[in-house]
Amino acid sequence: MSMIEFREVSKAYQSRVAIDAISLKVERGERVVLFGPSGCGKSTLLHLIAGLAKPDSGDILIDGELAATAGKNLQEPEQRGIGMVFQDLALWSHMTVAENIEFGLIAKRVANRERRQRVREMVDLVRLGDYLNARPGTLSGGEQQRVALARALATAPRILLMDEPLSNLDDELSLQMRQEILRLHYDIGFTLVYVTHSHNEAKELGTRTIRLRQGRIDSASNGAAA
Ligand code: ADP
């Protein structure tokens, strides 16, 4: 679990301000839901946390350590202990479920035996034990979401970033996945930052809801769940 802190962080693309002097603290193990209309800066905020975008000004701290500051990433994405599940799941279709989940562990040079064990644990966790050798293309939407979740969690991230991860699922699958995410949060413990347009998802998943508006935190709704 990690603490995330933004101090007066701004980010523009060309002349377009995406994040406008945001200060924000997310406590360890908190589940923050980001809300707001399209283009208000939700994805940019996640990219800044992940190190996929650099702030133009301000500081980003993870566990009290400076991860990024004006124009510079001081910690690479892979140093930040972050797992990501975005709307476009980007599963590798030519790899099996096991290989997809194993990928981040290979990048982290986890030893062979430990890797296999970890993949096994992950597929059990998301209840996909029977699909180790299946290709993602042969799975249902919900099963693919679970593979993406297992892949994101395999490296035991301290922070999990999710950008509308359930938006392509029907109601029943979405509900199942929400329960899954809460169960995993309970079992593993991670700090969650979750982007959605859905009030149901926000209510169920968030310990706090933050509404963004034009790159700023809308103070009226920074607090209790929506
Ligand atoms: P949201 O996720 O809330 O829909 P974004 O963070 O994607 O919002 O976008 C915030 C603003 O930044 C928008 O005006 C968007 O057009 C702009 N933006 C985001 N990413 C880029 C990019 N890679 N290049 C140019 N403009 C971008």
UniProtKB/TrEMBL annotation:
Residues 4-226 form the ABC transporter domain. It comes from the Bacteria. Keywords: ATP-binding, Cell membrane, Ion transport, Iron, Iron transport, Membrane, Nucleotide-binding, Transport. Gene3D superfamilies: P-loop containing nucleotide triphosphate hydrolases. Transmembrane segments: none annotated. GO terms for molecular function: ATP binding. Belongs to the ABC transporter superfamily. PANTHER family: SPERMIDINE/PUTRESCINE IMPORT ATP-BINDING PROTEIN POTA, SPERMIDINE_PUTRESCINE IMPORT ATP-BINDING PROTEIN POTA. This is ABC transporter ATP-binding protein. It comes from Methylocapsa polymorpha.
